[in-house]
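Progress note, sequence design subtask.
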């Protein structure tokens, strides 16, 4: 009993000592300065690669660790520490395979570094005031439409725009050369002629082509009871006669596909102006009796189709009457999802020619917008007075400010030159050409207030704010309400500004944020380069190429998140999308019919959010196979906001060593051989697990359970750098959603760049983080983020630039 009691007392004493030591250690840890703990973390986990001796990536933190003050080290090189924070936030530093701190330690280090960075005085974040900002193609298109109600294609009129950081609205990238100026003048003339029309218009031609896919269902905008075809929207230059030539449909001298009648109709603004039949018993007789001449006689019915039309916008359709929903046996055997189109003809293209025998110029929306005063009708006003009234009205919106006497004097000089030989309308056309070629229309400029010194900050004027806001949210010029508020100097009032932001977001024109901003943020231009390999993907090439449907889906999906003012995190987790029949079948949905896109709720969670969208999956792949590297890079860059390092030079392609093998290899097997190199493994170990999680989606975004060449089950398992194991799209999305603020920060960075119209720099990151913090309580609602962006110094403030250095001339 005594021995037992002694052992109990001994254990108790030992436990007390241990407990006491633990208490002392805990107290010491709590008492430790957080900055000291953060320095210790850098020393323990970073110096192995980033010392003065190793200096991997050209980066060393040894000086920071040697300093007794982390904040002072951050202040010496904030750009370096912004890069470090980005890597730490993305959990890609330390690299996989190296000793890893726990999540709390990383979060503490990130918080400490960001706190030091956010407290630094930061005069650079305000843009210098002397950069002129040219309208890019899309802005030009929208501005012309909103000003004159004329639809133009910027790609047909203007040279390509350069981009920076993925965006084509960056002022420093939108340079101008003498050839640019000439093209802008020619574009201005083309727009003016289109807007006013010409009584002496000469015949011209337009070609319209069908979108991909079959033509078995109704095309929205064409008359009910029709199937397939093309609906073309065109501005006709004058009243007169026009004609249509439809592409040949009889393509075989032996009459293939002529067994069934295909009743074809041509419509102008939904009224039938011509109808005929292609195929059927009479045409089969024609092939039997005429033989080699039958094909030309059938196709002749599709040529020289004449009709009368007035000037202005018209909807011209070439389509078929719907006869039956039945499909032939051949169609059921076509390899494309949803069937092909064998005996039901399709309209591949048609050409519109005219006008012939011009009879005049009718009223059009563009002419009504321009001619608020007509000298021929208003006898009380001289032609010059009417011209001044017209130019005053148009130039106010074109120049985004009140019109001055000097502005009018210049436009009236253009008017005089044009009216000299062609009369009143010719003078107006000349004046509008000058207006659209004016720097006041083509550029956004900002003036420096008098009395300021280099480095001083100042607020941009209300008129400059109105232009900046409208080109941000609408990609176009301000409307009358926004402009009037700016003229009265009311727009800069915070309450008024936020009210206008909400009004503009609810306007249909804000859809450009989905179709323009989102596409540039996610680099969807790559879709133009990825043409599906017909041999590998016969069900997603040629007429079944899904890329245009993918673009439409992504636009409608993003716009729904923005327009419903949902959390931007829903871009990753929303369980709905927009599909038509072709895309629905591509996604394995069987209950959607027709070419019209509609909203559907997705039961398959693998398709939720951006990572399930065909546009994203296809843009991050190759034309003939998937690429875990490209998909992993996409997630790092556009979801996590951590651009991966560039690959080393002379990296071999996957197939270099596998030509002639007897067994088809999966992409994972190919990658295993590729990443065995130590040079490659450091990057691949970060990107590959992200990309493999999406490996069940093939290169054109269709789900698969097996690799159809290797015949093996798809393996989508992987491990993230922080040790999280994932297997498939759901696990990947859930891992990303554990820290939603990381995605929000990436989104805000892109949106701020797009709004500023300049490149994003390291000194803009404090503003980005503030927006993320300030909108967290509102669950990162889209409108809250936009309002926060508009209220940043980056958006509203400017800085007087330093004087240009004086260069001495060398004798």
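Output:
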């Amino acid at each position: 009993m005594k021995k037992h009691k002694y052992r109990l007392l001994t254990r108790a004493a030992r436990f007390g000592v241990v407990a006491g030591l633990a208490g002392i250690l805990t107290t010491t840890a709590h008492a430790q300065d957080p900055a000291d703990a953060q320095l210790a973390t850098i020393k323990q986990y970073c110096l192995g690669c980033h010392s003065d001796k190793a200096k991997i990536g050209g980066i060393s933190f040894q000086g920071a660790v040697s300093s007794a003050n982390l904040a002072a080290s951050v202040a010496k090189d904030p750009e370096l520490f912004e890069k470090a924070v980005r890597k730490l936030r993305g959990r890609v530093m330390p690299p996989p395979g190296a000793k890893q701190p726990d999540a709390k330690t990383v979060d503490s280090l990130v918080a400490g570094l960001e706190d030091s960075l956010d407290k630094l005085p930061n005069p650079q974040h305000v843009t210098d005031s002397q950069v002129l900002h040219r309208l890019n193609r899309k802005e030009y298109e929208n501005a012309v439409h909103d000003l004159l109600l004329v639809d133009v294609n910027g790609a047909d009129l203007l040279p390509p725009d350069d981009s920076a950081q993925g965006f084509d609205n960056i002022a420093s990238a939108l340079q101008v050369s003498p050839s640019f100026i000439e093209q802008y003048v020619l574009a201005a003339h083309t727009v003016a002629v289109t807007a006013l029309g010409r009584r002496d218009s000469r015949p011209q031609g337009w070609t319209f082509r069908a979108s991909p896919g079959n033509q078995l269902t109704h095309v929205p905008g064409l008359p009910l009871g029709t199937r397939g075809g093309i609906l073309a929207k065109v501005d006709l230059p004058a009243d007169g006669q026009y004609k249509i030539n439809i592409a040949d449909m009889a393509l075989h001298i032996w009459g293939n596909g002529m067994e069934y009648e295909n009743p074809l109709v041509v419509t102008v603004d939904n009224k039938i102006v011509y109808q005929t039949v292609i195929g059927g018993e009479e045409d089969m007789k024609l092939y039997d009796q005429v033989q080699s001449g039958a094909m030309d006689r059938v196709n002749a019915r599709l040529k020289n189709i004449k009709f009368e039309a007035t000037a202005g916008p018209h909807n011209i359709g070439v389509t078929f009457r719907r006869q039956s929903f039945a499909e032939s046996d051949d169609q059921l055997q076509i390899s494309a999802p949803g069937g092909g189109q064998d005996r039901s003809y399709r309209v591949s293209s048609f050409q519109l020619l005219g006008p012939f025998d011009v009879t005049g110029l009718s009223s059009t929306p563009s002419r009504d917008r321009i001619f608020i005063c007509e000298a021929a009708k208003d006898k009380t006003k001289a032609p010059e007075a009417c011209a001044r009234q017209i130019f005053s009205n148009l130039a106010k919106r074109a120049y985004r400010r009140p019109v001055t006497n000097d502005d009018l004097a210049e436009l009236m000089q253009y008017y005089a030159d044009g009216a000299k030989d062609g009369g009143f309308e010719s003078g107006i056309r000349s004046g509008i050409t000058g207006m659209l070629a004016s720097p006041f229309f083509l550029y956004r400029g900002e003036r420096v207030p008098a009395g300021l010194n280099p480095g001083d900050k100042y607020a941009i004027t209300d008129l400059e704010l109105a232009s900046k806001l409208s080109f941000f949210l609408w990609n176009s010029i301000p409307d009358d309400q926004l402009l009037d508020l700016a003229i009265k100097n009311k727009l800069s009032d915070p309450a008024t500004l936020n009210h206008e932001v909400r009004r503009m977001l609810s306007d249909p024109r804000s859809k450009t944020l989905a179709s323009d901003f989102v596409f540039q943020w996610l680099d969807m231009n790559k879709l133009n380069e990825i043409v599906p390999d017909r041999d590998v993907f016969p069900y997603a090439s040629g007429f079944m190429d899904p890329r245009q449907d993918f673009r439409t889906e992504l636009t409608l999906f993003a716009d729904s998140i923005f327009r419903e003012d949902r959390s931007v995190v829903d871009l990753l987790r929303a369980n709905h999308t927009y599909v038509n029949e072709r895309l629905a079948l591509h996604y394995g949905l069987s209950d959607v019919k027709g070419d019209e896109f509609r909203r559907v709720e997705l039961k398959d969670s693998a398709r939720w959010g951006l990572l399930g969208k065909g546009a994203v999956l296809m843009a991050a792949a190759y034309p003939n196979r998937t690429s875990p590297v490209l998909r992993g890079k996409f997630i790092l860059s556009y979801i996590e906001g951590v651009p991966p390092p560039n690959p080393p030079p002379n990296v071999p392609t996957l197939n270099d060593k596998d030509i002639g093998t007897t067994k088809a290899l999966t992409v994972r097997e190919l990658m295993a051989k590729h990443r065995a190199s130590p040079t490659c493994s450091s990057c691949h170990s970060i990107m590959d697990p992200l990309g493999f999680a999406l490996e069940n989606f093939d290169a054109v975004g269709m789900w698969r359970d097996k690799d159809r060449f290797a015949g093996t089950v798809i393996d989508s398992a992987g491990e993230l750098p922080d040790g999280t194991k994932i297997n498939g799209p759901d696990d990947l999305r859930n891992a990303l959603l554990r820290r939603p603020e990381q995605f929000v920060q990436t989104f805000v960075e892109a949106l701020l760049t797009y709004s500023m119209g300049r490149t994003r720099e390291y000194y803009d990151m404090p503003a980005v983080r503030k927006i993320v913090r300030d909108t967290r309580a509102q669950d990162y609602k889209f409108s809250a983020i936009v309002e926060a962006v508009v209220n940043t110094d980056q958006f509203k403030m400017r800085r007087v630039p330093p004087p240009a250095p004086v260069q001495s001339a060398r004798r």
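DSSP finds 32 helices and 17 strands in the chain. Work on this subtask will continue into the next period as scheduled.
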